[in-house]
Amino acid sequence: MPESSRRQIFVTRELPGSALERLGQAHDVSVWPHRSPPTAAELLENVAGCDGLLTLLSDGIDEEVMQAAGAGLKVISNYAVGYNNIDLEAASRRGIRVGNTPDVLTDATADLAVTLLLGAARRVREASQEVSSGDWQTWEPAGLLGRELSGRTLGVIGMGRIGTAMAKRMVGGWNMKLLYTARSDRPKVDESLGGRRVELAELLRQSDFVSIHVALCDETRHLIDEAALAEMKSTAVLVNTARGEIIDQDALVRSLRDGGIFAAGLDVTTPEPLPPSHPLVKSPNALILPHIGSATDTARHEMAEIAVDNVLAGLNGQDLRCEVNLA
Ligand SMILES: NC(=O)C1=CN([C@@H]2O[C@H](COP(=O)(O)OP(=O)(O)OC[C@H]3O[C@@H](n4cnc5c(N)ncnc54)[C@H](O)[C@@H]3O)[C@@H](O)[C@H]2O)C=CC1
Ligand SMILES: O=C(O)C(=O)CO
């Protein structure tokens, strides 16, 4: 590509695979070299004069960052399907296109939701701890009793791509009955998986397992609060692979402690990382993972390819391969 058409791109972290090399052949790319994200001040400094940004879910991209980049900023490509870290209204006002990486991480994330559901239901954290601490005495008839899955009811909050993939696994594999919340009816889900769309309160009251798959937005922040947790069965297991802020975490700590629900399996928390001293980390019935839903080699490589395609298209003024609707 001629020197004059090369644009300036800031990438907030190294990515797996060779996608960034492809970007570097076409444009001048600067990659944040550290394992930790840039601070807000470092972000402002590094975006100055950039035409494109390739960002992670841990980077807060607000109007100040867009302003710091300057009038040439054409595209923000998020290396994630979720884009709650980006101020979409500000991007729309400034005519900046926003991209994300859907679909290629759906299976990986649904698999992890199943992992958390099984792990929390069968008390894998406590069981593993018993072995590593030397507390395991003997095989006990009533030792570490967990919850059975087969034939029970799964409640999926947010029947989008990942929610549907999770439901398929649980209905197909464990013959579960399916309830879900969604903004509109899903006749195909009802037909193929025997699902039934219900209000959130009914889903919480009737489900043995509840799995959260909605995007984080004003409407869903603290959707699962004290009152919602109080609706759930004391034997229920709650799984969250969406975003930490969808749950009121203080209320969850109390519910897990007081027997309000049986257990929780969480891939996402507030904040991330959660300090080891946090009461949730200390809760024996909370199985917590460090936001690894999409962490398979296949998914993360494909995400990188899409994120780079999105930058390239945005710089050329074309529709992005996966574009977030800013309307
Ligand atoms: N743990 C991880 O590593 C990962 C987490 N995620 C999270 O999972 C979320 C879902 O991803 P996808 O399924 O690909 O997105 P999606 O857009 O296909 O699904 C979200 C669904 O939630 C629905 N929804 C939104 N607000 C709702 C509400 N108030 N009540 C009921 N339904 C509502 C939407 O209509 C949509 O169907 C992402 O936004 C992201 O936050 C995604 C990938 C990996
Ligand atoms: O894609 C996302 O939204 C994630 O949380 C990580 O892949």
Based on the model shown, name its key terms.
binds 3-hydroxypyruvic acid, 2 domains, 14% strand, Rossmann fold, binds 1,4-dihydronicotinamide adenine dinucleotide, alpha/beta, seven-stranded parallel beta sheet, 327 residues, 37% helix, globular, five-stranded parallel beta sheet, 13 helices
What report would you give on this structure?
It is a single chain. With 327 residues, the chain is α/β, with parallel strands linked by helices. Helix content is 37%, strand content 14%. The protein folds into 2 domains: 3-102 and 297-315, NAD(P)-binding Rossmann-like Domain (Rossmann fold, 3-Layer(aba) Sandwich), CATH 3.40.50.720; 106-288, Rossmann fold (3-Layer(aba) Sandwich). α7 (161-174) links the parallel β6 (153-157) and β7 (177-181). The two termini are 33 Å apart. 44% of the residues are buried. The site of 1,4-dihydronicotinamide adenine dinucleotide has 29 residues, from α5 and α7. It comes from Allorhodopirellula solitaria.
